[in-house]
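Run folding on both entries below.
>entry_1
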Amino acid sequence: MVAIIDYDAGNLKSVEKAFAYLGEPAVITRDRDAILSADRVVLPGVGAFGDAMDKLRRYGLVDVIHETVERGIPFLGICLGLQLLFESSEESPGVNGLGVCKGKILRLPAAEGLKIPHMGWNSLEYDHPGRLFAGIPEGSYVYFVHSYYLQAQEEEIVKASTQYAVHIHASIEQENVFACQFHPEKSGEVGLAILRNFIAVA
């Protein structure tokens, strides 16, 4: 069973449908016991960093997320869910993130011919071997929607990157914690393969 954390963020249903398509039962919940008893946990998200952290605190989910990580339950952050795992974001100065991983979220710089938010398909380069990308060729395309990007402090946790005005850390893996800036649930067969790999994580 996959627990999809409900904190009023967008995109929960499409993540649930992707797991259902793969034959993996999923439940959208903010119940502590349901989350901690799940086989794996997903933190999706579309929205603003500060508002999201406020809701996670209001629903008592910050401690639940930290306990999930400490228990070694496979955990996947998607889009805003990746950003929230880090320490801070230029989108919401003064707001602390979850701090599960070290690094900061920066605004995408303006560049001639490139629109912000970044919306569209970009190819992945593999920085280090990552379990989410087992069997998926380097250069595969995935779907992004974001105005801010990750700059991880520890390069070794970065498993995939892409280029859009700057070098973007697109996916990380730190022990049982995985995260993608892109949307695997909207990335066709490649995205489904990534979610299948997450389901297979021991």
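>entry_2
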Amino acid sequence: MTATTLDVSPSPDEFAARSADTVETRYQHLDCRRRVRVGSAVSVVFEDRHTLWFRIQELNRIARRSPSDAVRRQLAWYQRLTPGDGRLVAAVWVAARGAHTHKIRAAVAAGRVVLRSDAGHEVIGRFLSEQAADRTLGMVRWVEFRFPAVAQAALHEPAVGWHLEIEADGLTLPATRLSEAVLQSLSADLG
């Protein structure tokens, strides 16, 4: 079984073009348009068709060694991560190493992930409870943002800045301003 049966799978032409992608192109998409770093320890990647495609490629690499039920569960999970209809989903993970890694991960998982605009809009993320074993990213939690119509309209406004904040007991993480490229990408996801 291959993992490319998910709805985000590309057309044959798109498949050929994506297969020719270089690692540099992939990281450029992730780093420039999808990834937001919060402090030095936490990264947030907003999912879209491209990030899910990268995940499917990784899943294809392990699909032969995994039971087909596990692959199907993973694909069903990835399907749930697709953005749209006023909804964004992001992977949140802690990249810290050392003695305090477990404490940082636990604090982030018990905390809140919030998108705040300069215009006073606040969209609080909700951690998704079901988790698939994701071998491409390791310890990952996914958070879902549901945008009310007024906040969605503000995200489409180029003049309105947005910040990503992680509020966790015992941690001081700076708010991170979303770049114009990330905002444009997220705005396109919401339609």
